[in-house]
Design a protein that fits this description.
By secondary structure, the chain is an alpha/beta fold. The chain has six helices and seven strands, in the order βαβαβαβββααβα.
Length: 197
């Protein structure tokens, strides 16, 4: 088995959460399998999530926490994100991290575009795994909301910067999960981590 450099982002803004449990289970299993692992927890990062006056020509200087996240993504070969779904999207602080850290010239190149005019991805060569927890049943998310958040994370964020393929693990009933369901999920996450998938 090929050892990989794995960067894990626990995208839940609370100190304790199911997302943290899953992120740490992935990290533990990946390390046990011999992978090189870095992990960061959103609640421990100090930065202004508001992009503010920024644009493609001018943006706020990155705080050390955001520089660290960007450096770790550049270092990685596989990026894992755990996040809850709140109001159909990621938590505001996580979205702020993406808005601030995924910058042109570092994550995508606006000077080089494809035939559709889309910027050239600069994070190509990395794969991804998104672990999304929610209360919305999977069938409802798919048929009523058309997997909007999952497509946003996979295609409009990870895919846009070149992190492909980005696979998704979705877990519903997160607010009041049954212990056996969490145990099964943790076991699944640990299996995925072993092969860095």
């Amino acid at each position: 088995m090929t050892q990989r450099r794995i960067f894990i982002i626990n995208g839940h803004p609370a100190e304790s959460s199911l997302n943290r449990t899953l992120a740490e289970a992935y990290a533990d299993a990946a390390r046990t399998a011999g992978h090189d692992v870095r992990i960061t927890h959103l609640n421990e990062l100090n930065f202004d999530p508001d992009y503010g006056f920024g644009g493609y020509k001018e943006w706020k200087p990155l705080e050390p926490a955001l520089e660290g996240v960007a450096d770790d993504i550049e270092w990685s070969e596989h990026v894992v994100l755990t996040t809850p779904m709140w109001w159909g999207g990621p938590p505001a602080k996580l979205k702020g991290l993406i808005d601030r850290a995924f910058l042109p010239g570092r994550f995508f190149d606006t000077r080089n575009t494809d035939w559709k005019g889309a910027p050239k991805p600069m994070m190509s060569g990395r794969s991804g795994r998104m672990i999304v927890t929610a209360d919305t049943p999977g069938w409802f998310l798919q048929w009523i909301y058309r997997n909007a958040m999952l497509r946003q994370l996979r295609d409009q964020i990870f895919g846009f910067v070149g992190i492909r393929p980005a696979r998704i693990t979705y877990f519903s009933g997160a607010s009041h999960p049954k212990p056996d369901a969490v145990d099964r999920l943790v076991a699944k996450i640990r299996n995925l981590a072993t092969v860095a998938s």
